[in-house]
Hints:
The complex is a heterodimer of chains A (144) and B (491). Chain A has 144 residues and is mainly alpha-helical. Chain A has helices at 6-19, 25-66, 68-74, 83-90, 95-117, 119-130.
Amino acid sequence: MSTLSEESRQIVASLAHRVGPDADIARVAQAIVSTLQDMDAALTPIIGPQGVAALYRRSLQLCTCAHPRLAGTYDRVQAALDLAALKSVLVEQSEADALFFGEVMLITFYELLTTLIGPSLTARLLRDVWEPSLSDTPSQENSP
Amino acid sequence: MSTKVTINRLATGVPGLDEVLGGGLPEFSFNLIAGPPGCGKTTLAHQMMFALATPERPALFFTVLGEPPLKMLRYQQQFDFFDSEAINHSIRYINLANDTLAGNLDEVLRRIVSEVEAHSPSLVFVDSFRSVVLASQTQDNPNNNLPQFIQQLGMLMTTWQATTFLIGEYFTETDTNPIFTVADGLIWLRQSVQRNSMVRKMEIMKMRGQPTLPGLHTFRIATSGIKVFAPTAPNPVEAPLEFPIKRLKMGVPQLDEMLGGGLPRGYSLLVAGPSGSGKSILAATFLAEGARNGETGVIAVFEQRPNHSQNATLAGLIQSGQVGLVDSRAPDLSIDEIVQLLLSEITRLKATRVVIDSLSGFELALAPTFRDDFRESLSRMVTALTGAGVSVLMTSELEDRYTDLRFSPYGTAFLTDAIIVQRYIEVESRLLRIMAVVKVRASAHSDQLRQYHIDDNGLQIGEMLPDQEGLLGGRPTKQSSGAVRTGDKNV
Lengths: 144, 491
């Protein structure tokens, strides 16, 4: 990945914050999945579950194209927005590998959304997800 | 003291729409925005939403089946009114695609109501309502009762003090759709296509409790959003003609004389003549004379390229800002759009003199769909302009036809207060020009046919040609010869 944008740095920092100081693989996996859940919760009311699922699949596909070494591992979870399946794959990885995937995946998702609805609206919709000061549950109202 | 309920009227933030609606949007009304795909329904909804939503009284935008919300956000962002900061703050999008897909209208209603109760919105939009209707029809569900659904939705939204818009595609007006009965307002958007031209039109088919402007109103969609061209309201207190009549100098002293001392202020003047007879020069002189007296003017040019304006005087006046130029290159103009362009220039410059050069070019600039109503349109324009108190000079290309005495090709002569006609005549193998004042309403004027020529200083009016007759026939004969050909006699 080229030089990290401000948003990418924020995403990386937020993920690190969620993982916390003692990074075991369970915490890393949980941090990635919970971030995706929060993004899902923020976006589903607006673009619908299918819209979020489509973004998720496209992000995964972009990740595995950009980083072929991820392909073998994550091709298995592309079927749907099934975060339980993702988590079960993640916990089999090393912490570093999982964290690398998490960062790439979240940044790709963010950038994909940016190409579609522009940087300011993307930032607006996902603002609460990255807020490190907030607790792990975002202030967004929950999707139905 | 009146104890009747006062219905607040909301300013929609769409230029011209409040006028067409008859003073704004009635608060808590239940409205339908309808029209074929691509006519601007969603854009209209968004523009009003961004104008009206506040954090205290937010807007809820329910997306149902139809345009995917991601795309809608992508495209609506292109408009100036779109403000990302308002999203999730004063504006909330709520996706109901799944509930609608299930086809259960009760469930859709329940979702809408629970969101409305949670957020107390001032504005509610459902886009597109058509898909709700379709979903109710395709499902084999005995509980689905569309009229009941609409009835309940309308009742609930009003009770929750929300102004509501349902957005729906291509309903036909003849449908006996239950929504037409329940809705307080019906805003119909249309695209009128004729040959290569497309004109957007809006009609307020219904708006309870207020006098809307009837008929079709043209609008445009630009990056700033929708702009409706409402017809100008007739001036209720038009100043009565003052005596003695105040007159404007034309910049050609002999012509002022012929007009009985100049053109009466607030009059409309038609200058009709064949190509090259000097109509545009006379029009430029008229504006230059105004500028010389400290008056400002506006010129609407429809044929000559303004940058290539042959008339240096006019170019200088435009350059110096003493004359405003209305030069709309927009295709498919409507009369109301032109009038609005003119009036805004007149207001900006406090102009007193207006030139339309020429009516023939103006007719071509109009979208084909308006050409059938050209006379009516022209009449409205003249009324709007003279109603604004300005004096108007219009030029009109006149095909040289020596067998009739028409002054304008549109039968529009009666619309104007004064008429000057120009003609070519053949005398001794030369093409000479003659001019006459045909009409000046409520004023004495010359009845002379005067020869004139054009030089670097403009129009130079000479004498009559008393020894010639049959001038209007184009081929005058010497009176002394006594031989009058029959063809010339009866003109």
